[in-house]
Design goal:
By secondary structure, this protein is an alpha+beta fold. It is built from five helices and four strands.
Length: about 100
């Protein structure tokens, strides 16, 4: 879970989220909301993402400012759950 959070939040390509699905949702003003363990147990889900899925939440009143922040300053909006997992990864990682 921590590694997944880091991959989605911290791994970048030219400053933007490396994952194309994350990049799509963030460009459109979403918040990286929740990482779900074993949410996709299909063979494809296990192979592609170890069964994990991410929820992106759109707060309509914030989508324009979130999108502008992401596109302008590459700032990713994320929930406390995601940020906590990122922090745990950073504390325990040897990368």
């Amino acid at each position: 879970m921590r590694l997944c959070a880091w991959y989605l939040y911290g791994e970048k390509h030219r400053g933007y989220a490396l994952n194309p699905v994350a990049n799509f949702h963030l460009q459109n003003g979403s918040v990286m909301w929740r990482i779900n363990w074993m949410a996709d147990t299909s063979p494809r889900g296990i192979t592609a993402s170890c069964g994990m899925m991410v929820n992106y939440r759109y707060f309509l009143e914030d989508t324009a400012s979130n999108s502008a922040a992401y596109l302008g300053t590459k700032q990713i909006r994320a929930s406390e759950q995601v940020l906590s997992l990122v922090s745990q990864f950073q504390q325990n990682s040897k990368l």
